[in-house]
């Protein structure tokens, strides 16, 4: 394991993202957090299942990400599902805005993690899967499972 891998602590993943979307490109962005949101993330108090990213003006924001309020915080309480700004390079933002204006593309968060103490989100440029695509993927997965079972059974006998 490299030293780079040791510095990553995954907070949460969007398990349905690869099922519901074709992920074409992935980008890493920082999260602009306030107050006790960082402590809440460190104790895995986050959900990104219903979240998506959207450009507002010339910036990209994540909408629908739920961070549970930190229970030991006595200072001002923040809204758990407020809109949060993503921190990226200007060239990446311009590229993503250009892609998102095309029909059928959206930005979805894939996972949230800490790298070297900084909260990061991996976002994917994605297209929605159609029902037939989901069925086809499920069928391929089932066929692959059956083939592996037959191979194991064959290895045991012979």
Automatic annotation (TrEMBL):
Name the domain of life.
Archaea
User: Pfam families recorded for this chain?
Assistant: SmpB (PF01668)
Q: Which GO terms describe its biological process?
A: trans-translation-dependent protein tagging
The record's Gene Ontology cellular component field reads:
cytosol
Q: PROSITE patterns of this UniProt entry?
A: SSRP
Q: Recorded GO terms, molecular function?
A: RNA binding
Q: What is this protein called?
A: SsrA-binding protein
Q: Which species is this record about?
A: candidate division MSBL1 archaeon SCGC-AAA382A20
């Amino acid at each position: 394991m490299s030293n780079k891998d040791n510095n990553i602590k995954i907070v949460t993943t969007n398990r349905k993202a690869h099922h519901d979307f074709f992920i074409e490109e992935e980008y890493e962005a920082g999260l602009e957090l306030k107050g006790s949101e960082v402590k809440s993330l460190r104790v895995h108090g986050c959900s990104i299942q219903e979240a998506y990213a959207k450009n507002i003006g010339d910036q990209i924001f994540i909408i629908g990400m739920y961070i549970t309020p930190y229970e030991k915080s006595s200072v001002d309480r923040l809204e758990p599902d407020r809109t949060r700004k993503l921190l990226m390079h200007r060239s990446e933002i311009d590229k993503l805005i250009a892609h998102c204006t095309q029909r059928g593309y959206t930005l979805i968060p894939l996972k949230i993690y800490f790298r070297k103490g900084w909260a990061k989100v991996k976002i994917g440029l994605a297209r929605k899967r159609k029902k037939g695509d989901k069925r086809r993927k499920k069928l391929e997965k089932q066929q692959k499972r059956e083939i592996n079972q037959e191979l194991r059974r064959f290895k045991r006998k012979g």
